[in-house]
Amino acid sequence: xxxxxxxxxxxxxxxxxxxxxxxxxxxxxxxxxxxxxxxxxxxxxxxxxxxxxxxxxxxxxxxxxxxxxxxxxxxxxxxxxxxxxxxxxxxxxxxxxxxxxxxxxxxxxxxxxxxxxxxxxxxxxxxxxxxxxxxxxxxxxxxxxxxxxxxxxxxxxxxxxxxxxxxxxxxxxxxxxxxxxxxxxxxxxxxxxxxxxxxxxxxxxxxxxxxxxxxxxxxxxxxxxxxxxxxxxxxxxxxxxxxxxxxxxxxxxxxxxxxxx
Amino acid sequence: xxxxxxxxxxxxxxxxxxxxxxxxxxxxxxxxxxxxxxxxxxxxxxxxxxxxxxxxxxxxxxxxxxxxxxxxxxxxxxxxxxxxxxxxxxxxxxxxxxxxxxxxxxxxxxxxxxxxxxxxxxxxxxxxxxxxxxxxxxxxxxxxxxxxxxxxxxxxxxxxxxxxxxxxxxxxxxxxxxxxxxxxxxxxxxxxxxxxxxxxxxxxxxxxxxxxxxxxxxxxxxxxxxxxxxxxxxxxxxxxxxxxxxxxx
Lengths: 261, 249
Fold this sequence. Notes:
The complex is a heterodimer of chains A (261) and B (249). Chain A is 40% helix and 24% strand. Chain A contains nine helices and ten strands. In chain A, helix 3 runs antiparallel to helix 4 (121-142), helix 4 crosses helix 5 (158-170) and helix 5 (158-170) runs parallel beside helix 6 (188-203). The radius of gyration of chain A is 19 Å and the shape is globular. The radius of gyration of chain B is 24 Å and the shape is flat. The interface between A and B is medium-sized, with 29 and 22 residues.
């Protein structure tokens, strides 16, 4: 059974149809890279998966359970959506760290708030908080940021901020971790450190969807590449095929433009 | 003479401070409620409009359905009226009009107490409307990404407001708020129009004749010292708050 199954997903903004019948599946431990030019619908797709946008039709299933059904879109309450969101983590292009919290607090905040809903919160408060703290520090350590735990976001470089954001998303142990152009807002010399961290996650079989403009990176890290254009998935397959032997004109055209630079 | 004047001015300034404090206590929270009202997106006909649009395309009526947000609209009209007319006029209306209209006469207690309550009502409402616009700017100035990051992390709307947005908003509104609050200290002198005995009233009384003196102009000028010292203290306080919030950007 696939971790994620997306069927006939559609999304329009007013008259403009941004996603047209998107179908794909994602297996556990698999990494999908989504490539395509700006405006092709890549970001909107990620935002639909994370319930930041409401699709106009289609279904999204996680571990075999339908979590969004375009035929019954009105039935989702705020609280339901909140729980369904937790299947996904999202790393934003612009990091969106909370500026008033340190790196460590950024990683811990959401988990601490969720822990307050546990039935044993009152009795085990101290133990729960200690566990969250230890895990958050461990995550920062994994990101190579152990020494930066008590720094505020504005004291960190862009690459460091993005790695904190990755740790923050991982803290909730999502089934699927999504990246929305994670290096697009970074100076070229800082992209490497972020890509290395993502590569490290892929090596540990983290299930991920990565929207990216870094073709070389997509080729190295992805098990499957989706090329999107005009709201469609034009071509999908293993990276060797999509990059090495693209079948569609549009894919060829797109890749030529990128290899040219 | 000096002791008499300082005594009278000081008790006048105490009234000034009383009105200042009650206005802040009332208008700071009321302003937040008004700002939520003006940002309300409740549109009772939006669904009807969507359905009509799906069935028969856009029309003037479907546009109206989307535009018609009664709470936001009502609040915006109220804020427009309150900000668009002089506080002095509002004070006069609030103090005198209920007595003319209500069958039981004026609802305000007789004497100084009534003047204070009427002044407090007018000031609280007036300043709440100004504050609401500052709050709105502060809330809307926090990047959407902050809210989205909270949502994606499974936080509730409430948690996002209190744990993420609020402090960033406070940091943004401190400078415009301090401006408005310092203006309020001086605006309390407007309450003199309904004979509220604040410090300007006390200073002026030595010109008109009271405490056995008349024709004295300097006590009136001397009231400026009180305002200056108090606003100096407030400026220091706001500077301290800004420094306290400078640990993040």
